[in-house]
Structures are given as C-alpha cells and as structure tokens.
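Re: NAP structure - here you go.
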Amino acid sequence: MELTPVHQHLAQTFQQMKIQEHVILKDYTTFKIGGPARFFCIVKNEDDLIEAFNFSKKNKIKMFVIGGGSNLLIADAGYDGMVIKMDISGKKYIEEGDFVKVTAGAGENWDKLVEETVEKGLYGLENLSNIPGTVGATPVQNIGAYGSEAKDVIESVYVLDIIKDEYKTLTNVECDFDYRDSFFKKNPQRYIIISVTFKLNKKGKLNFNYKDIQEALSAKKIKNPNLKQMREIIIDIRNRKLPNLKTYGTAGSFFKNVIVSSIKAKELLDKYPEMIVHAVNNKKTKIPLAWILDHVCGFRGVKKGNVGTYQNQALVLINYGNANAKEIIDLAQKMVDKVYEETGIEIEPEVEYLE
Ligand code: NAP
C-alpha cells in the first residue's frame, strides 16, 4: 500500500520520536491487566518528554503518565490516547548541615532510592520501604505507611505544566498534600512530574509506633532499632502481608482505609467491640478496612474464577492469571456493596482506573 504524504510524515515522526502505536499495556502494570494504548512513548529525558507532549498537543491527543504501574487498573479496551511511560532517571545529593537534599528522577525505582538513603544513614524514607512503583508516583498519592507520609519529607516537585507549557518547581505547600491525596491526584491533567526533591535528616528519629512494627521488634527482641533494622522489619512485614508481584498480578491495597466520624466509629464499636480503631482527632476516626473486609464481610482469601482477594490481606485484589479488568471491577463492586450493606460505610478504590 502506498502511503499518503500525511501518513509518510506521521511514520517518519514516529520513527524519530520513538512513539509507538497500539502497545498492549498489561505488561506495564503489576496487575498484568489492560488493553492497548493508541500511542505509547518511553520517556528517558526532558527532550523525549517535550516531543511526546508536543505531538499530543498538536494532534489533540489526551495524555496519561505511568510510572511502575503498581497502582493502576487499565480497561480491557485500553486507552485511546498517549501513554507516557516515565523513565527519567538520575539522583543528586546535596548536603546542608544536618540535612541532605536528595533529588531523584521521576522514573527512578522508589524502593532502590529508599535502600540507598538508608545505606547512607539518612532518616525519612525508612518506613516507606518496599512500596512498589517509581519516585514520580510518590507525591501523587502522597504514599504513606507506618506513620510516615511522603509529604513529611518532600521539599519540592519539578514539573512540566501542561496548561501553561512551562517548567516549574512546586513547593511542598503548593502540592496541597492530604491523606493519600495531592494537587496532582485532584488535577491529573495539569502537571507531569519530572523529579522530586526530598529533605532527609542525618540525625532523625525512628517511628515505630505501629502495632505490626512493635510486634516484629519484640519477636526479634530489639528494643532500639537502627535505621537498617527498621527497613528490614518493614520489608518483612510487607512481604508477609502482601503478595509477591512475581507470583500474582495485583496492585496492592485496592481500597483506601476508612476515616469516619467518631460518632460512626462508636456505633460500629458497639456492634463489633473487638474492632481496632485509631482516633485522627476528636471528630474523626480511622478504621482498618482490612479488618471489616475480613471479620465483618468474609472477604479474606476468596477466589472466584480468575480473581480473588489475598489470603493474608483482604484489601488486596489478585489476578490469578488471565483476569480482565471487568472481572476485577465486578469483584470490587461486590465488596463495595457488602461493606455498605453491613456497615453503612462507602469505601473508595485507591487504585486508579484508566480507560
Ligand atoms: P495497618 O497497619 O493494619 O493499618 C490500618 C489502618 O489503621 C490504617 O488506616 C492506619 O493508618 C491505621 N493505623 C494503624 N496503626 C496506627 C497507629 N498506631 N496510629 C494511627 N493509625 C494507625 O494497615 P495495612 O493495611 O497493613 O497497611 C500498613 C501500612 O501501609 C499502613 O500505614 C497503610 O496506610 C500503608 N499503606 C499505604 C498505601 C499507599 O500509600 N498507597 C497502600 C497500602 C498500605 P495510616 O493509613 O494512616 O497508616
């Protein structure tokens, strides 16, 4: 077939720009689910990013950025736009008295960064050990675990402003962080994150308040853990509670933990006295959703066809092999309905759905 000048031009452009077409996305996610992207580009530096961005803008194509694909469910029909696989690397350490500022490219592996900072004796990221994904995803979700949140250590985020077509450095305040939430999450079509700067402490203090950590410390007879021991303990806990990504398709916790009014928490405690709750303040209370899914709704370790929940953690949905997005969504909807029926709580997915 002879190519028209327009097709010739596009074909040449794709060749030069590494833009691919109809790329199956499932292998770019830890769920191992998802149809094709109409356009797809692996971005390794700012020049690649600008080219993918200009191509999308000129051709009025919507864009979506993926990092490690570890918090993502992609529709079976795929995405009719440009998927940018963020792969910008690079790390820089700058000392400032008792602090060290670490800037890492958005495509850097998150846990490798945590490991490296712990090796260097820097405090701040240790409780966020063993979380899959990339550096660029940490501000979006404001990832958090065991009493630490990304917002506690993020100094600034360097971005491409899609609307104003300019580079910008956003301060921590401008990121508008909240519990597992941020400006980036609320406004997904505004910024593309290029790098993140963390302010870490040479003389930090460890936070081992969480029950799982306390239990692990006492099992190992450790009273005052050091930085490396904290990381090892958290890796052990997460390995025990969460499935191995090499064995199962999963995006980890599928739903957000629940924050309810203290009145609602009291009502539930009257009904389920053994339920554990954590006061946020005198008006709000956190409830571990895994406990409700397990003890109230009987969802731990269920399996139907290709999908189910993990035997050690009911919050985690699993693709047991060849599942499609619809099967996951159907199971998730059943869980949403059952939790509402039993407790009156409306639960929300934490995993992002791309369609
Ligand atoms: P968990 O430790 O059993 O905690 C369940 C819930 O109880 C969470 O909402 C947690 O709050 C809260 N909680 C537990 N101990 C607490 C304490 N001492 N003080 C205040 N709140 C307390 O939960 P899990 O499912 O096994 O997860 C372990 C950790 O990983 C949790 O911190 C969880 O939030 C985190 N996680 C984060 C993500 C993410 O960032 N996307 C995904 C999955 C799990 P917090 O949520 O505030 O910790």
